[in-house]
Amino acid sequence: MFIKFMWQIFWFRRTHRFWDESAREKWESLLVNQAKEYRRKSLELEGLLIKFGQFLSTRADLLPPVFLNELEGLVDRVEPVPPHISKEIIQQEWKGNIEDYIQDIEDQPVASASIGEVYKAYLLDGTPVAIKVQRHRVEEIFRTDFKALRIVFWILARVTSFGKKADLGALYRELVMVISKELDFQKELKHSLSFKERYQDWEGVYVPEYYEHLSTRRVLVMEWIEGAKVTDSSFIRENGLDREQIAKRVFDLFTDQLVSAGMFHADPHSGNLMVRSDGTLVMIDFGMVGEIKQEDASNIRMMIQGFILDDYDAVIRALEKMDFLLPHANQQKVKRLLKETADMYLAGNFEKFDQDVINQILSDVQEFVQDQPIQLPADYAFLGRASSIVIGVLTSVYPEIDLMKWGKPVIQQWVSGNDSNESIYLNVLKESAKPLLSLPRSVNQFLTDGARERAWKERYYQRKLFHQFYLFYGLLSFIVFTLSAGVAGFGYVEDLEILLYIGISVSGASLLSLLLIFIRHFRNIYLITNNRRNNNE
What we know:
This protein is an alpha+beta fold. It has helices at 2-15, 21-45, 48-56, 65-71, 83-94, 138-159, 161-165, 168-183, 185-198, 233-238, 243-259, 294-308, 312-321, 331-347, 355-371, 378-397, 403-416, 424-437, 440-448, 451-494, 497-536; strands at residues 102-105, 111-112, 116-123, 128-134, 205-206, 219-223, 228-229, 262-265, 273-275, 281-283, 289-292. Strands 1, 2, 3, 4 and 6 form a five-stranded antiparallel beta sheet that branches.
């Protein structure tokens, strides 16, 4: 299949030298047919093909949208194995008769995925539980498939332009790491217990109990949850629940994961978010999680400070430490483009900010990504996908949601710092003060100059400090804009009009709300500087 796909792409490019509308339609048709064949083969052969497809469905930075659309169908669409085989696996893991541990188990699974299946069962005391069982021979099949996939990656890296640009070695290692974690249910148990401890005191949020003594590498036993998908509007209406309150709980739950160091749920679709009849939000299935390391959280702060202080070397260092830039990236070019982009926002007329501006920015971003060897680490690819999924869930539960209103306090709290993270405000003040502290000669001159000179410098440093704070707020708005533009881009690619509308609306509002006042102040600073220079001349 791989050789067939490569030959089809090679022959298409050879026979279509000129790229017009007809060629584009034929190209997309070819990709759709290849994706459908991949999906059909993966469901037929199972094994790594399914998980590889699911992994790639998170990589919009690697595959075209038409291919990704077909890969999304791999999620939760796997035929179950015969029930007696799953029961044999349970007995092997428990090292005894299944009747010694449970009273009854249903004949058919309630869910079937590429790695495991879920059965409803009852403990000896009648307590209902959910038993997740690893699919038969899945580890053996995956080991064989990994070897074949490694050969495929090796060929791609040496004979294709895509392979030479992307870091396929890193991609392969990430794939092995992600899937290996999912194969070990003990790791999922560990994730589950961590999330339960983290949210045990959250009102209206619940993580199920897990039965550690019955859980092994291939079997996971947890509390059975009665409820419905969080997007089930009929269930919400029948139980008299408040849609806004439910949406706010989802928002608070995932913004806590997305802005804080630690683990985040990487697959928060509506099937993994349930709501009980009393309105309690229940989070399940922690097989796929990502992690924002404390070091990465610090690097994000370093990047923001770099933008505020016009220190793009610091921005590049932060991006490099987070592995956004590949080793052979042209860092000087990246730095120059980042600075030019920031200057463009400062000099732009945002009073006329509209969809044309957004389209131009998205076009610039796409051109930048094509120009530079940039590849998202797996955790950040999962983070982007999780964010898009959550926004989709939120708008489905509560279409009237105001993301700007809900998000503003979160951003304010994040930039203010907490017990483990120093406030960005304070860091900016420290960095801004360094030039003054390191220049005693200038301080001495300041003390001996005339009253007019001192007054001017007082105004200068005061305005400079205020300028940095305005720049900081402008940067926050730019970050919100960038995330919103990403959501809009995702909505455009996936043909999800509501995400496209929300992304465009939020990005436009964020820029209009903060950047106008920042631009005025920025220009005033330059006017003062120019006036001072003219006076000296």
